[in-house]
Specification:
It contains 10 helices and 9 strands. It is an alpha/beta fold. The protein folds into 2 domains: 7-119, Oxidized Rhodanese, domain 1 (3-Layer(aba) Sandwich); 125-279, Ferritin, CATH 1.20.1260.10. Strand 5 (70-73), helix 4 (78-89) and strand 6 (95-98) form a beta-alpha-beta unit. Helix 6 runs antiparallel to helix 7 (155-183), helix 6 (127-151) packs parallel to helix 8 and helix 7 packs antiparallel against helix 10. The chain is globular, with a radius of gyration of 19 Å.
Amino acid sequence: MTPTGPFKPIPALAAQQVKDLLREKDPGAYNLIDVRQPGEYEQGHIPGAALVPLGELYERMQELDRSRPTVLYCRSGNRSRAAAGILLDAGFRDVFSMDGGIQAWRGLVVDGPPEAGMVLFSGREKPEELIALAWSLEEGSRRFYHSVASTLADREAAGLFDGLVSAEDHHKAALVGVYREATGDSAALAIPEAFFLGAVPGEMMEGGMSVTKAIEWAKGKEVNDVLDLSIALESHAFELYIRMKRELAGESAKRIFHVLAAEEKVHLDRMVTLLEKRRFPNAP
């Protein structure tokens, strides 16, 4: 996969490559991390894998040995790509997402979403470019969630995605406010396209995924598959706002990014809860 705008590929291994690595190396020579939920893990996991759910990874990454290669996997590859992006941004070096997840490990063919294995370049963007990028990703997610909400027959899931559409609009307005503060342009009503790094605003989602292609992919998919992808998207957004809070100057901007990151975490937790409810309806 070649770089797309402000994105670069996330390193990945095929399931067979992971099997070869586990066979050839001592277990103490690598980190093997399952980023699914506890119920999924208990139903079956790769021997020797430690469970660190994606929603907990940011707070628990200190548990991992940075000197070892880290292989992450999930159900189909969506969440592990997001997890790899979080670790790469945190300074981990040898990080790999297992393509196709545990389904590929079991020999199942996985129809994954297009062009999802990307991570943001680190340390190359100006503040205005980071803000513009965040705005564009919010608009891309808003378009995707709106399309999903309008086609889902599951009323609970459709309601969740409808709420996310409103949240993305709120986040876009907040980002325009951050742009005004960062540039001193108090009259700005929008972010100039010059800061979008040559990308079409709103055409990319977190992970470097084309919104148009993602909408096509989602047609006819099970609700759980769409939730799985959306969990990865919200994880990317959460990590981006944590990074922006860390890198951008201005106390007001830092407060806004703190709030946006917290809201993305709430969205992530709601999606995880609904996914677990659908997969394990009889769980206490």
